[in-house]
Every structure is written in C-alpha cells, then in structure tokens.
Amino acid sequence: MNISINVKELYNTINNLKPARSAWGRGVQTYARMILEDIIEYIPDTVETVADLKAACLNGAKDWKQYAEGGGGLVYDHIIVNTLCTPSEIKRFKYKEGGYRQPGPGETWIDVEARALYQAWELIKFEAIKQQARKDSALEGVRV
Length: 144
Description:
mainly alpha, two-stranded antiparallel ribbon
C-alpha cells in the first residue's frame, strides 16, 4: 500500500520541532522550513512518494549543489553565514572592510549552503517517512 505524504502536515511537524542546540542545526531546520514553504505554494496538498517529494523540493535541480547555485537557497554570503554560523564564527569570517572570507580552501559559502540543504532534505525525508509509518500503523487495525 502506498501512503501519500501530506506536505502541509509535514511543514507543521518541521516547524514545531524543538530548536536544535547548535547554530548549524538551527540553520538546517530553517532551510527545511524554507524548502517546504517554497513547494507548498505550487504542489497539491499531498505527494505519493518520498521520491516525488524530493523532486518537488529540488524544483528542477539535479542535486542540492545545483539548487544552491541556481538561487534556490539564500544566495548572499552574509545571509548564509548568519543562518549557519555562531557569533564567534561570524566574527572570524568577517573582513574589517565588510564581506566574508571563504569558509575554506577551494570552498565557497554556496558549497556550505549545499551541505546544509542536503541535511535539511534528510530531516524532511526522515519526518516524511515517520508520517507515512504513523498513517500505515493507524491503517493496520482497519480491515477493508
């Protein structure tokens, strides 16, 4: 039996999660809410499978890096930094003249955002699978 995923219910579940303890974790939760807010606008209330949900979340991109590079995420370095980093990390990355240093050699803030988006997707997927399992276990007691 295929149990559909209610996207609005999934958004409410993610929105009501206990805030993560780390800045990174809170940022990942922010990205998860942002992704679901974006797709609620243009898809039906439910999707049939986790694969359908992922396709809707990626919005035509092949992966989270392409999604981030295409502007699906937060776009500007300062917004990404403020979403994912602690105040001490923000201070460490900030230039005195303004702007932010890249996070590491050969890495951009868009790369960091892509990692956070992937983790946000994993959170969404985990909660979607839990939602399906709850519905499945509720249906087990019902005989058709």
